[in-house]
TrEMBL record:
The gene is LOC103821986. It comes from Serinus canaria. One of its GO terms (molecular function) is metal ion binding. Coiled coil: none annotated. Its cofactor is a divalent metal cation. Pfam families: DDE_Tnp_4. One of its GO terms (cellular component) is nucleus. The keyword NADP does not apply. The keyword Hydrolase applies. This is Protein ANTAGONIST OF LIKE HETEROCHROMATIN PROTEIN 1-like. The lineage of its organism: Eukaryota, Metazoa, Chordata, Craniata, Vertebrata.
Length: 417
């Protein structure tokens, strides 16, 4: 199944600069849920309004040499082989033109403008090249024979179009039949039953915004925005909430996200729930110690010498299955290396860019585009370790322990594996 998803929760600092401790308390979490919900609505409204009022026209800069302006037509379109397309655009030529056709309604030239516009395919190429390599606008512009400001415009217009036109196809909430299929695939590939995905967070390094440095400074002392994501058993995203301040804990982000609301409304499982081990049981997601134990989120038992063999086996199974999202994040950052360091992006535009990268990841994975393992080099810099703050005990659901026990029984009946 192509990656499906719910909405986007976009975060922004409050300016009070309290760091992680400033987000505690039920009233604060309730306020955050309302605030991010409103931010999401405003973001989508702005996206639609932006699309309506802009012509999506780009005027190539007049360069003294025709070599740059002809490079796209004469070299890329005529001489690039399959490996060239994969290396420069992170996808096959066929997938590239599929995306162009899907984005055409949002990027069509405006007939009222006298000046010739940059061809749609060239705009998409400029944007994908930048997202893939994170090269500076000034470095990329001579290659395509356009100015740096045109490169920037291409990146943002194409990102907007990807979110508006491809998100409904590749990043949406699964329906009941799709959830059942996701659980089947997850069990088949990862050996964890009654599970529809894995949940984790990704910190994206940024330059600290003025007056909000404390809010965006995470537990490891570097500045970041936080993205919460859920993937299926194929490593494709189906829920993404992004651009939360780096100081927020995963548990606070979860409570402020659309995923939490969907789960509480019972929209992540059939009604009534399907039976597992003889009992009606919701589908589960797999998290780590930074998430609260819920009847729909399972995490490992805390490691100590008192764990039973069954509990150790459960931990092993869960951690092995949870690696699907760790691998998905690695592939996402390796393919779209703009996510390794967002230097020239405003906080208001970052949610669109991150979402666009997640959607493009799903498109590439769904279309079986090859992945070059060499792209992984440098995606996990040792100087930026991942923040990891355990979830507060107050968020734990006592009923969830019964679900973990059911899983322990299931794995015990299956034997070692």
């Amino acid at each position: 199944m192509a990656g499906n998803s719910t909405g986007t929760g976009s975060g922004g600092g409050s300016g009070s600069g309290g760091g992680a401790g400033g987000w505690d308390g039920p009233q604060r979490r309730a306020w955050l849920r309302h605030y991010y919900s409103q931010r999401q609505k405003r973001l989508m409204t702005l996206l639609i309004a932006h699309r309506r009022r802009t012509s999506c026209c780009f005027y190539p800069r007049a360069w003294p040499s025709l070599r740059s302006t002809d490079w796209w037509e004469q070299v890329v379109l005529k001489e690039f082989g399959p490996q060239d397309w994969l290396e420069k655009f992170r996808m096959s030529k066929e997938t590239f033109f599929y995306i162009c056709n899907q984005l055409r309604p949002g990027l069509a030239p405006h007939s009222a403008h006298f000046h010739p516009t940059l061809p749609l395919e060239k705009r998409v190429a400029v944007a994908l090249w930048h997202l893939a390599t994170n090269v500076e606008y000034q470095t990329l512009s001579p290659l395509f024979g356009v100015g740096p400001s045109t490169v920037q415009s291409c990146v943002w217009e194409v990102s907007y179009a990807v979110v508006l036109l491809l998100k409904p196809l590749y990043l949406r909430l699964p329906d009941e039949k799709e959830l059942e299929n996701m659980a089947r695939i997850f069990c088949m590939r990862w050996g964890f039953p009654h599970c529809i995905g894995a949940l984790d967070s990704l910190h994206i390094p940024i330059h600290p915004p003025l007056r909000l440095t404390a809010d965006y400074c995470n537990g490891q002392g570097w500045h970041s925005i936080l993205t919460q994501a859920t993937v299926d058993g194929l490593g494709q995203f189906w829920d993404v909430s992004t651009a939360f301040p780096g100081s927020m804990e995963n548990s606070a982000v979860l409570e402020s996200s659309s995923l939490w609301v969907l789960a509480k409304e019972g929209r992540l499982c059939p009604n009534p729930p399907k039976h597992f081990m003889g009992k009606a049981q919701k589908y589960v997601l797999l998290g780590d110690a930074t998430y609260p134990l819920q009847d729909w989120i399972l995490k490992p038992y805390q490691e100590d010498e008192n764990l039973t063999q069954r509990q150790l086996q459960f931990n092993y199974r869960l951690k092995r299955a949870h690696s699907v999202i760790e691998n998905a994040f690695l592939r996402l950052k390796a393919r779209w290396q703009i996510l390794l360091k967002c230097d020239d992006c405003s906080l208001e535009l970052l949610p669109t860019l991150v979402l666009a990268c997640c959607i493009l990841h799903n498109v590439c994975e769904a279309h079986d585009n090859p992945f070059n393992e060499e792209w992984l080099e440098g995606t996990e810099p040792t100087e930026l370790p991942k923040p990891c703050q355990p979830a507060p005990a107050a968020m734990e659901d006592s009923r969830a322990e019964q679900v973990r026990e059911l899983m322990c029984q299931y794995f015990e009946s299956c034997g070692e594996g």
